């Protein structure tokens, strides 16, 4: 899958992804995503003049907003079985993603091993980053990080 990348975090193999693939209960969005990310569709869209592509994108927005407003909470959140399947497929104990905009660290057991799913928040209100402080992973707001970083830099 194009969206999934394997990286090393704190000495362990991890997956990093946008996270929309994990919202598998929203079958309409998954179908739309499958169509729009198809290489032939992407090629055909790229051949359209910019003005037409822009109007097409703006024309889709109202329908996307209506669809988003009609979704249940379960549809807008990840499907835990999908999370487990992807983590098992890639044999990882750490998954980092966004999309759901429900920041936090979800710890659970998978295949009799402790695993973590870390969700980073959105960038609209308060951008968040993942801090690797030795063995500890922590979600921190960018403003908080920059404030802490500038204090450390000026005191050291």
Describe the structure.
With 156 residues, the protein is α/β, with parallel strands linked by helices. It folds into two domains: 5-25 and 74-155, no CATH class; 27-70, no CATH class. It has helices at residues 27-36, 39-47, 50-69, 73-76, 80-90, 142-155, and strands at residues 5-9, 12-17, 94-97, 104-110, 113-119, 128-133, 136-141. The strands form two sheets. It has a five-stranded mixed sheet with strand order 1-2-3-5-4, with helices on one face. Strand 6 and strand 7 (136-141) form a beta hairpin. The longest helix is centred in the middle third of the chain and has 20 residues, at 50-69. The relative contact order is 0.15. The mean pLDDT is 83.
Secondary-structure map:
Blueprint: E1 5-9, E2 12-17, H1 27-36, H2 39-47, H3 50-69, H4 73-76, H5 80-90, E3 94-97, E4 104-110, E5 113-119, E6 128-133, E7 136-141, H6 142-155
Parallel strand pairs: 2-3, 3-5
Antiparallel strand pairs: 1-2, 4-5, 6-7
Key features of this structure:
156 residues, alpha/beta, five-stranded mixed β-sheet, 6 helices, 26% strand
């Amino acid at each position: 899958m194009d969206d999934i990348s394997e990286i090393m975090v704190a000495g362990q193999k991890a997956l990093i992804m946008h996270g929309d693939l994990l919202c598998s209960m929203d079958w309409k969005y998954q179908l739309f995503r499958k169509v729009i990310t198809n290489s032939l569709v992407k090629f055909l869209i790229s051949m359209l003049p910019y003005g037409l592509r822009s109007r097409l994108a703006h024309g889709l927005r109202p329908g996307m907003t209506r669809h988003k407003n009609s979704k249940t909470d379960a549809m807008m959140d990840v499907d835990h079985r999908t999370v487990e399947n992807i983590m098992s497929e890639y044999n990882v104990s750490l998954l980092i993603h966004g999309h759901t905009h429900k920041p936090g660290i979800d710890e659970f057991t998978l295949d009799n091993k402790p695993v973590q799913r870390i969700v980073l928040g959105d960038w609209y209100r308060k951008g968040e980053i993942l801090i690797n402080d030795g063995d500890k992973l922590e979600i921190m707001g960018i403003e908080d990080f920059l404030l802490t970083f500038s204090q450390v830099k000026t005191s050291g």
